[in-house]
Structures are given as structure tokens and as C-alpha cells.
Amino acid sequence: MVDVLVLDVNETLSDLEPMRERFAAAGLPRHNLDDWFASTLRDGFALTAAGAYAEFRTVAADVLTAQLAAAGIEPAEDTIGGVLSGMTQLSLHPDVEPGLRRLHEAGLRIITLTNGAAAMSERMFTDGGIMPLLEHRLDVGTPQRWKPHPDAYRYAADVCGVPVDRMALVAVHPWDIDGARRAGLQGYYLDRRRTPYPKAFSEPDLVAPDLAGLADALQDRRK
Question: Known NCBIfam families for this protein (predicted)?
């Protein structure tokens, strides 16, 4: 069993769907959200692979600028800010608060580790009632390596003062699970979208549909 759960934030805890309205308000198709988020991750990963670093907002703004220009829309700062500010206005998935409360009551330490800025989720965690359950809220700004680079997970282990094999990464992203597993953590995959897990990645140690299901699975392990 592990001592610390390391929670991814974007999509794992937060519901990004309201961001589609921000894209529509900027004159872009609502489905551009998916390409924007995937492209932001791609470029962040590429910088990390090259030994460089840029903050999530910088990369996200660059991708959005390209999308606006391709659509013939002036990439004004107000337009870009209007879209990106939506990341600070998101809500938790409904299962997050009750699921995390059960995991906390079971004695697990809980932290977050995001490729975005930790401050972006402060309002969401406060409004969602989970801030008291979180021991640390971390981002990759200190190691300056985006997940899934091993330095990001090792940084979380150093902050918590535990070896990596006493931690488990919880995420909806297979690339995050794979990175954590390769860094020595366990990987708990939340299959919110009921999609096949890629065969190219390291298999997760647990698969659950949501955090309530994860709490059930871990409770069964402890029996």
C-alpha cells in the first residue's frame, strides 16, 4: 500500500467542458478546446524533452494565438486573456469531493501535482470543499520539467519526504500514469471516458471509473 496519493489536476479533478464557451466567445469552434489542450501539452513536453522550460500559460497562449490567427481572428491580448482566464473558473467533477474525503479518512496523504500553475486551481479547490484535504499543492515550476519527466514526480516525493514507491499518481491521462510508473510510483488510472488504455504505455496498478470507485478499490485492497 502507498502513503501518498499524487493527484493530477486538469481533467482528472477539473471539468474542462465550460472552456468550450470561452472558445465560442472568442469566435472559435467549441471543439478547438480539444486541440488547444492537446497542443499545449505537446509543446510543453517538447520543451522538456529538449531540456528547456516554459510556464503552462505561456505555452497555452502561444497555441491559442496560432488558432486565432489561423481562423482569421486578431489574437488580441484581451481575447487570449478571456479564454485562458476560464482555467481559473472551473469546477470539480461531482465525484471528487466525496471520493477524496473517503481517501483522506482512510489515512492517505493527498497532494496535487500539475503542469499548470498551482494557483490556477485555488478557487476551485476552495469552492469545492477539498482544500483542507490537500497537504500540498504542487506544480512543475520548481523542477522546471513538465510531467511525465521523472524529475516532476521525484520533486513531489522530496516535498512529501517519502520514497517514490510509497506514492501513487492518480490521473485520467495514460501518459501521466506511464511517466509515474517509470519514475517508480504506482499509477491509478481514472477511466472517466471509458476508453481503452494504450498498449504502448506501462499498465496502471489500478483502474477505476472515478474517485469514488478508486476509494472502493483501495478499501478492498486493505481488507
Answer: HAD_type_II (TIGR01428)
